[in-house]
Amino acid sequence: MNIADVYKAETVKECIKLLAKHKETKIISGGTDLVIKLNEGQIEGISLVDISSIKELNFVKIEGNTIHIGSNSTFSDVLNHKSIFPKSIKGFVEALESVGSPQIRNAGTIGGNICNGSPAADSIPPLIVLGAKLTIISKKRERIVDIEDFFLGKGKVDLGSNELLKSISFDIPNEDSKLNFYKYSYRNALSITLGSVAALIDIQNNIVQDIKIATGGFSAYCIREREMEELMIGKELNEENLNYLLNSAKKIVQKRIETFPNDFKVLKNITIEGALRHVIR
Q1: Radius of gyration in angstroms for the set of CA atoms belonging to the chain, rounded to a whole number
Q2: In sequence order, what are the residues at sequence separation of 6 or more whose Cβ sits closer than 8 angstroms to the Cβ of residue 221?
Q3: Is the pTM of this model over 0.90?
C-alpha cells in the first residue's frame, strides 16, 4: 500500500480545506472498496482524507416529501431508519439489506458506494429510478447533480479532487407507485453482484401508467434503461407484453457485451431476464 499521507478531518469545513490544499487525494471513510484498491496497487502515491469522524455528514431525515441522507451514513445507519420510510420505496431498503455482510454494512457508506462508481453497486439503481440528487461541495461552490449524470464510465464519476459529496436526496414516490429491486450474485451476499435491476412502477387497472428502470452490472456503470421503459408504458401487464420486454432487454444488453465470451453472454441473458421478471409486478 503506497500512501503519501493520511489527514483526519473532523468537520466538513476542515475536509474542504484539506481537499483544496492537497491535490492528489482520495476521501476515505469505511474504506470497504478503497482499501482493496490500495492493497492491490490499483491506486498509488495518493494522500487520504479520512472523513469517518465527520458527524454532520451522518444523517437520515425526511423534510416535507423529500428524504435526505448524509454521504457518511453507513448502510446500517440508513437501515436503522427504515421504519420512517414509506412502503413505496421498499426496494431501496432491500437493496441496502443485500449489501455484503453485516460488517460491510456497518462500515461501508452510501456516499462511498456512489463515488466508487462500480457498475455493480447495489444502492445506485434504486437511487437512479428515484431521481436522486447529489449535493457536491468544494471550497468555491456547491452544486446539485442528478445521480443519473454522475457516472461517466467504469469507476469514473463527476467529482473533482477538491470536491466532497455532501448528501443524497430524493422525493418520496406517490402512493400508487412501488419500487422493486432484485439482484443476482455469483455465490451469496458476500460475492460481487452479477446483475441487478430496480424498477419504480405505477400500475393501475393492470395498465403500466409509468415505469422507470435502472440496472447494475450490465454496462460500464449503472444506468437508466429508457429503451426498456418505453416498451412497457401504456401497456397491459400480461405475459405477452412482459415476454416481449424480456426478449428486447436481452438484445439491448447483448449489444453492450458483444465482444465478451459466449458463456458470459448467456449468464447475462439469464440474469437480466430473471431480474426484470422479479421487479415488474
Answers
A1: 19
A2: 117, 118, 119, 151, 152, 153, 154, 156
A3: yes
